[in-house]
Structures are given as structure tokens and as C-alpha cells.
């Protein structure tokens, strides 16, 4: 037998087990798994002695800024997918608020064509849900292969290109205000008919507008004041409303980038009642809290904001108990000049795709979670929730040979200048970590090794 790739002597990991074995790849698929060496030669051999062999890691929440009219001076898919590969990821889900936005099939097809030649890893694409503006497009988008639908609850959009307005104020021209609950409810019903997930950015516009005005009048410019302007209840009330819509419509709901502790309990209660509700948090919410602002500054500004240590601990409990099923990067880069401005005027978002897996692997090395839990939140659960398991998220014979090899002992320091995103900024600059992804294999082909890209773009568009 002529194998394409053999990964030997490693410790194979899934969400339940760790066991020694060899993986044999043929025609981009896992052809065999054996504790003993099988006969045959291989075009590529990887000796994983002393290392852990994981199903390829997945990031469901990526903003690469790419598109025909995208903000590619901040980032593009070539650099973000390269960063993903070097960071141990084999599949990413590209968010729909690109330019043009993914609100119809024409723009989806354009984006597939645009991203494919730049892709070092496989990729899915979210569809954008805009209420009545594209409610008649949702079924066709679903049929065309979007992974799920994203709804930016509480955001206005411009009336021409449907781009998000991040600092909306009533009275703005050529702007469609945030949607009312009746229109959102209709949208939930329509998405439920497709069987796809509706995922939400959960922040209450009215609460944020009123609290921001109150804070501005006080003159307080501190991070504590910033948190007061976007309080926990802004997340809590939207999650409550969304779960109520799920009860009535049967829609499948996913809560994106959860930061507030109250959200964990709401998701837990919904799950216990049998409602199809899942949640994710992000590496920055798990590894940073408000106490870090004096050291990091506006580099850690995101929406929803990085909250208190108490919130952080509840999020970790959500991960450990399985209430929160995945961790994402919410990679959303800006330039260093943009991010080093004033806290209140600088844009929200950070470059985080390359550090996602390393930060979580460090938590394994520190004993906060197990290597099996890492596989759950960064591979198996994302694949299962979004309907691409076992092709992705598993190491089963016959599935895509997407593999991330991890060394739990290697020590390193995150350095911003070594990142591969266009925007080399991170709140984790100087962060010491133990453990790292050391080899990334996409459909049997090594694309990254020891912090360097070693393959050419060859990623493919995937659909559920």
C-alpha cells in the first residue's frame, strides 16, 4: 500500500480517550488507525512521539475583512487563514459582515470564489440575517451552503450596502435603525424553517445608548465606566428574548462571544428544558478580565466587553460543565494606529486567530481543563453543532484527514511581531505559554509546522 501520509507514535485524542496509535492517510481521508505499524510506504511521515494527535481544530468566528470592497488594509483571508494554519486550526467559519455582505446567494458565490485561492485551511461562510431586508433570501442562502445565519442584534445598517453601523445615533441619514422585536421574531420563524442555526450578537441597543449617555455626562473615561456603558444586563435581556423566540418558533439558537456570567445560567436553563440553545465564549474573555486594562489598554476593547474576574470564572465553569460548547477567536483585526487611540473612540476587535489554540492549550498545561475538553470545545462540538461532524471534528476512518499535533511541553512567549495577521497587535504580547500546536495537517497535507507555513493555499469551501 502506498500511503499519502503516516502520523506515527503519537497519542491520539478525542473528547473521551487518549490512546497510542498511528494514523494512515490516503486521498485526503483517514484510511486506517492502528496501534501497530501497517505495511506500505508513505509520501510523508510524521513522527509524533511524545505529542498529542488531535482532530483538526475549528474556529467558528472569524472576521477576515476580505471582499471586493473589504477593509483589506486591516486584514485579508490570505493572512488570516495563514495565521489560522500556523495557530493549529484546520477549518474556519468566515463571518458575513464582509463587503459585499453575505445577504444573498450572489454575494455568497462571489465570496467563495474570492476566498478559495487564498485559503490555507478549509472554510465555511456565515449568511447574514437582516430581518425583512433579506427574509426572502434566507432559504436560498441556506440551500446554497451557508453554515448558519448571523444576526447582529441591536445594530443599525447603512441602507445602500447593508454594512453594520457601530456607533449609531438616531437621526443618522441613509441608515436603517436596529430592528424591533416583531421583525426579529418573524426572522426567527423563517430561519427555523431552514433548519439552520441563528446565531446572535447579544447586546441591547437601548440599554447601551442610555447607559452610554449617562456615563458621558459623568465625564468618567475609565474602563470601569466603559463596562457601565455596556452592562451585563445588555447581554442578559437579549439572550432572554432570544430564548423566548426559540420556545415559540423552534429555531436553533447559538449565543456568540458570551462575556456576561448571567448568560451561562440562561443557556443552562434553556438546555435543561430541552431547547436547542448553544453558547460560545472567546479566548480573550477566558484569559483577560477588567483588571488587565491598566496593562493592556484599548488593545483589549471588544464588544461585548471583557468583563470582571467573576464573569470570567463563571465562563470557565460553563466550559467545564459543557453548558458552553465551544471557544472561538472572534478574530477582528484593526491597525495598530486605530487600536492605540482613546478607549471610547478606538474600534472594537483584536487579532486573535493565531493565539486561540495556544492560549487554550496553555490552560491544559496549567491543569484548568483536560486535553479531552480542549478537543470538545475546539473541534468536536463545533463540528457537531454546525452539522459537519464527523467529516470535521473527528479522527474516524473515512473522514477528512484534518489533524492538529500538539506538544504540551514546549514553552514560548507570544510576540506581536511574530504574528502572521496583517495587523500584528495582540493584548497577549509578552504572554508566556506552555504547550503549542506544532503541526497542522489539512486533508492529509501538512500546511504549517513549528510556527511556519510550509504549504501553499489549498483549502476548500465546506457546507453542512
Walk me through what this model shows.
This protein is of the alpha/beta class and 464 residues long. The chain has helices spanning 77-86, 105-115, 138-144, 181-194, 205-218, 223-229, 232-249, 261-272, 283-287, 293-296, 309-321, 336-339, 356-365, 371-385, and strands at residues 2-13, 18-26, 29-34, 41-47, 52-55, 57-62, 89-94, 122-125, 127-128, 149-152, 156-158, 164-165, 175-176, 197-201, 252-255, 277-282, 326-328, 403-413, 432-442, 445-449, 452-453. It has one domain (63-395): TIM Barrel, CATH 3.20.20. Helices cover 31% and strands 25% of the residues. α5 (205-218) runs antiparallel to α6 and α7 (232-249) packs parallel to α8.
Reconstruct the topology from this structure.
Layout (H helix, E strand, L loop, with lengths): L1 E12 L4 E9 L2 E6 L6 E7 L4 E4 L1 E6 L14 H10 L2 E6 L10 H11 L6 E4 L1 E2 L9 H7 L4 E4 L3 E3 L5 E2 L9 E2 L4 H14 L2 E5 L3 H14 L4 H7 L2 H18 L2 E4 L5 H12 L4 E6 H5 L5 H4 L12 H13 L4 E3 L7 H4 L16 H10 L5 H15 L17 E11 L18 E11 L2 E5 L2 E2 L11
Helix pairs in contact: 3-4, 5-6, 7-8
Amino acid at each position: 500500500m502506498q500511503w499519502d501520509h503516516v502520523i506515527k507514535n503519537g497519542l491520539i485524542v478525542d473528547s473521551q480517550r487518549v490512546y497510542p496509535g498511528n494514523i494512515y492517510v490516503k486521498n485526503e481521508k483517514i484510511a486506517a488507525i492502528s496501534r501497530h505499524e501497517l505495511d506500505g510506504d508513505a509520501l510523508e511521515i510524521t513522527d509524533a512521539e511524545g505529542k498529542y494527535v488531535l482532530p483538526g481544530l475549528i474556529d467558528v468566528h472569524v472576521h477576515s475583512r476580505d471582499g471586493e470592497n473589504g477593509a483589506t488594509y486591516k486584514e485579508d483571508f490570505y493572512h488570516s487563514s495563514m495565521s489560522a494554519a500556523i495557530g493549529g486550526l484546520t477549518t474556519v467559519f468566515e463571518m458575513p459582515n464582509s463587503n459585499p455582505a453575505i445577504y444573498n446567494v450572489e454575494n455568497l458565490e462571489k465570496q467563495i470564489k474570492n476566498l478559495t485561492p487564498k485559503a490555507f485551511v478549509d472554510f465555511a461562510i456565515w449568511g447574514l440575517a437582516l430581518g425583512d431586508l433579506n427574509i426572502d433570501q434566507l432559504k436560498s442562502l441556506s440551500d446554497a451552503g451557508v453554515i448558519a445565519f448571523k444576526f447582529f442584534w441591536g445594530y443599525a445598517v447603512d441602507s445602500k450596502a447593508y454594512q453594520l453601523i457601530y456607533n449609531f445615533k438616531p437621526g443618522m441619514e441613509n441608515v436603517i435603525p436596529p430592528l424591533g422585536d416583531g421583525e426579529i421574531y418573524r426572522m426567527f420563524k423563517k430561519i427555523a424553517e431552514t433548519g439552520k442555526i441563528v446565531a446572535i450578537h447579544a447586546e441591547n441597543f437601548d440599554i447601551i445608548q442610555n447607559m452610554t449617555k449617562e456615563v458621558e455626562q459623568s465625564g468618567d473615561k475609565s474602563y470601569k465606566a466603559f463596562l457601565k456603558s455596556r452592562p451585563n444586563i445588555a447581554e442578559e435581556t437579549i439572550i432572554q428574548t432570544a430564548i423566548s423566540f426559540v420556545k415559540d418558533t423552534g429555531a436553533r439558537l447559538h449565543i456568540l462571544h458570551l462575556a456576561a456570567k448571567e448568560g451561562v445560567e440562561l443557556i443552562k436553563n434553556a438546555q435543561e428544558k430541552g431547547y436547542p440553545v448553544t453558547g460560545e465564549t472567546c479566548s480573550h474573555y477566558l484569559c483577560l478580565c477588567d483588571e488587565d486594562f491598566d496593562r493592556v489598554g484599548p488593545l483589549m476593547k471588544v464588544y461585548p466587553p471583557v468583563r470582571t474576574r467573576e464573569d470570567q470564572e463563571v465562563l470557565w465553569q460553563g466550559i467545564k460543565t459543557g453548558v458552553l460548547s465551544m471557544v472561538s477567536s472572534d478574530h477582528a483585526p484593526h491597525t495598530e494606529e486605530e487600536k492605540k487611540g482613546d478607549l471610547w473612540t478606538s474600534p472594537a476587535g483584536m487579532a486573535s486567530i493565531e493565539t486561540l489554540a495556544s492560549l487554550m492549550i496553555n490552560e491544559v498545561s496549567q491543569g484548568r481543563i483536560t486535553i479531552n475538553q480542549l478537543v470538545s470545545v475546539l473541534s468536536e462540538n463545533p463540528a457537531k453543532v454546525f452539522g459537519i461532524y464527523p467529516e470535521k471534528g473527528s479522527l474516524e476512518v473515512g473522514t477528512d484527514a484534518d489533524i492538529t499535533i500538539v506538544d504540551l511541553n514546549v514553552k514560548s512567549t507570544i510576540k506581536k511581531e511574530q504574528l502572521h495577521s496583517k495587523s500584528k497587535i495582540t493584548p497577549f504580547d509578552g504572554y508566556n505559554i506552555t504547550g503549542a500546536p506544532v503541526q497542522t495537517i489539512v486533508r492529509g497535507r501538512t500546511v504549517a509546522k513549528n510556527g511556519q507555513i510550509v504549504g501553499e493555499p489549498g483549502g476548500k469551501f465546506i457546507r453542512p
